[in-house]
Amino acid sequence: MAATKEGGNTGGDMILLITSDGQQFEMTEAEASMSKLVSNMIEDDCTENGVPLPNVTSNVLAKVLEYCKKHAAAAAAAAKDVAAKASKDQELKSFDASFIDVDNTMLFNLILAANYLNVPSLLDLASRHMAELIKGKTVQQIRYLFGIVNDFTPEEEEEIRKENQWAFEN
């Protein structure tokens, strides 16, 4: 079945994840259930030697696991105590707000990792935060924010603006 050891009362067996830089991380099956990629691998009994994640580095996976652990624990607590659900929801909102307060590079990597690992709630959180960062900014401000060099000629840029004029209308 799953690679590694019994998790006791921590949410089932431990699943071994191996990042692109060779680091190994463990997560419970309850935490792994947040990732459809990892869940599918568990269902398909493909976790015996660990789950290779060639598209995720260790620093990004550590952040993703922090998110999954908190949300899995909150879901388990809310399932046990329905009355505490409102306070847990507020606690998660507070956690999410501080969790997603990262630099642009990490935010971009979290979006890529959440998409690859298929963690919809994290993808939604990170994408919403990215959208808030660029909302109301000009093309030049967005380029500066993300360190994007403008490699269009003035003529190409004008043509693109004409083709996408609808995007620049209020």
Concise account of the structure shown:
This is SKP1-like protein. Helix 3 packs antiparallel against helix 4 and helix 3 crosses helix 5.
Q: What's the total helix number?
A: 9
Spans of at least 5 consecutive residues with low confidence? 1-10
- Assigned CATH class of one domain: Alpha Beta
Oligomeric description of these chains = single chain
Looking across the biggest beta sheet, what order are the strands in? Answer: 2-1-3
What is the string of helix and strand elements? Answer: EEHHEHHHHHHH
Mean pLDDT across the residues is 89
**Broad structural category:** mainly alpha
What profile does the largest beta sheet have? 3 strands, mixed
Hey, roughly how much beta strand do the residues contain?
5-15%
**End-to-end span in angstroms?**
55 Å
Fourth CATH level, the homologous superfamily of one domain: Potassium Channel Kv1.1, Chain A
* CATH topology description of one domain: Potassium Channel Kv1.1, Chain A
Helix content: 55-70%
**Alpha-carbon Rg, integer:** 20 Å
In the CATH hierarchy, the architecture of one domain is 2-Layer Sandwich
Instruction: Name the overall outline.
Output: globular
